[in-house]
Design goal:
single chain, about 350 residues, alpha/beta, Rossmann fold, 2 domains, 14 helices
């Protein structure tokens, strides 16, 4: 068993980054995720591993620092919360267009606009549908515990480099701020320059030796025919990500009804299941862990056996669109959620199931 600690979700992100062998973190403080950078600064990983930790002058600057580090084949990341991530979206689109790996952490707060510092899940569309411009996709992981905040850092980096694509951890202020027992990952050493050249020398800008052609990293292509081919290539890559789809099912085998929820909402749904089953309502939980790629086929297989589905989200109803598409509208699907930073109670979820699905 690895080292056990009681830690905040945000603190774990920082510790996991060091242990994953990250080369650099570039960010800017914003509630409710500022502890990520604060923990990194307190840990001083540059003394331990050589990892660079830098507070940029803005979110725009930080994502472009990530762009530069990723272009060198480095394992780099940033973190922010909703309004700050919005500022990063142009850079994220550039990174996706240039096919570079990086990790972006979004500890979501209520919006729109500056909104509130309280937790929310209202950035689902931004993360899953592509919050910047152009046809691109992010790999999106949705942890629902402090343990998964730890695990998803290394996983996010692995998937980002596997597909040469930005990956995002989409969490919220509940998981970022709460404390739980966590088993920390073992240390992975940072790659040396030689190892980066050996692994990523066919695309990374590692210096041009006489033995190979130069690597040019850009998202710009002025010829439409070539740009279309590049988009077709990206589309095939996004489709191939389905092989890494992840999800969890809880008490679905005998279920007649289904909650679909991610992140902290799924935690609340687990208690709602207990309350509902005490009343004789057979309900289970389907939790997407990868929001992109979305577990469409798996939800279709499970969901079409149900009498009804309730999509539980801390927003005005966003993932429900993907739920409806998954079951091809052959099953009644309704939404329930609170937004603006309010967290729904388990009883409210059960009441919504009874009112909107069972009695609807």
């Amino acid at each position: 068993m690895g080292e056990l600690r009681l830690m905040k979700g945000n603190e774990v992100i920082a510790e996991a980054a060091i242990r994953a062998g990250a080369d650099g973190y570039f960010g800017y403080p914003i509630t409710p995720q500022s502890e990520i950078m604060e923990t990194l600064m307190a840990r001083k990983p540059w003394e331990e591993t050589g990892m660079v930790v830098l507070q940029a002058e803005s979110e725009v600057a930080s994502i472009n620092m990530v762009y530069g580090g990723a272009g060198c084949g480095k394992k780099v990341m940033t973190s922010s919360s909703s309004p700050g991530v919005s500022l990063m979206m142009e850079g994220v689109s550039y990174i996706a267009g240039a096919e570079l790996p990086c990790l972006v952490v979004n500890i979501v707060r209520g919006g729109p606009g500056l909104g509130t510092i309280q937790p929310s899940q209202a950035d689902y569309f931004q993360a899953v549908k592509g919050g910047g411009h152009g046809d691109y996709r992010l790999i999106v992981l949705a942890p629902n515990s402090v343990q998964e905040m730890n695990d998803h850092v290394a996983l996010g980096f692995d998937l980002a480099f596997k597909y040469r694509n930005p990956a995002m951890i989409l969490s919220d202020g509940v998981i970022g701020q709460m404390m739980e027992k966590v088993e920390l990952s073992d240390f992975t050493p940072r790659l040396t320059e030689k190892e980066i050249i050996e692994k990523y020398g066919d695309w990374a800008t590692t210096g041009k030796p006489r033995t190979r052609n130069q690597n040019v990293i850009t998202s710009l292509e002025l010829q439409s025919e070539i740009m279309e081919k590049r988009n077709q290539h990206l589309l095939k890559k996004y489709e191939s990500m389905q092989q890494d789809v992840m999800y969890e099912e809880i008490m679905t085998e005998d279920a007649e009804y289904l909650f679909v929820a991610f992140g902290s909402s799924s935690r609340i749904c687990q208690k709602a299941i207990e309350i509902a089953r005490e009343k004789g309502i057979k309900v289970g939980l389907f939790r997407p862990i990868t929001l992109y790629p979305f577990p469409t086929k798996q939800l279709k297989e499970r969901g079409q056996k149900m009498k009804g589905i309730l999509s539980v989200e801390m927003n005005a109803g966003q993932m429900i669109e993907d739920v409806k598409l998954a079951v091809e509208c052959k099953v009644p699907v309704e939404w329930f959620g609170r937004f603006g930073g309010i967290i729904p109670s388990p009883q409210e979820i059960v009441d919504a199931l009874e009112q909107k699905i069972i009695g609807g």
